């Protein structure tokens, strides 16, 4: 276990903790770290959970606020340029997944 932590700490990405619709916790690593865009977060989360990216809702913080909502209109364009850091996310934050 200690070796695993050393490998992850040396990695350029950072980890977000996910809580799915069934309450099952998991972790997601974004390779570009805080420079990752919200679009990359959506794609990576969709692949990890099997939930269609266009239907994905992610909430974070306390009280939980919407970080990503289902794609409508021009929201996809903003996601392509806004970083997870600009969205207020940090390493090891908990995100709640809804579909």
UniProtKB/TrEMBL annotation:
<dbReference type="InterPro" id="IPR048857">
    <property type="entry name" value="OTU1_Ubl"/>
</dbReference>
<keyword id="KW-0378">Hydrolase</keyword>
<keyword id="KW-0788">Thiol protease</keyword>
<dbReference type="Pfam" id="PF21403">
    <property type="entry name" value="OTU1_UBXL"/>
</dbReference>
<keyword id="KW-0645">Protease</keyword>
<protein>
    <recommendedName>
        <fullName>ubiquitinyl hydrolase 1</fullName>
        <ecNumber>3.4.19.12</ecNumber>
    </recommendedName>
</protein>
<feature type="signal peptide">
    <location>
        <begin position="1"/>
        <end position="17"/>
    </location>
</feature>
<feature type="domain" description="OTU1 Ubl">
    <location>
        <begin position="16"/>
        <end position="67"/>
    </location>
</feature>
<keyword id="KW-0833">Ubl conjugation pathway</keyword>
<keyword id="KW-0732">Signal</keyword>
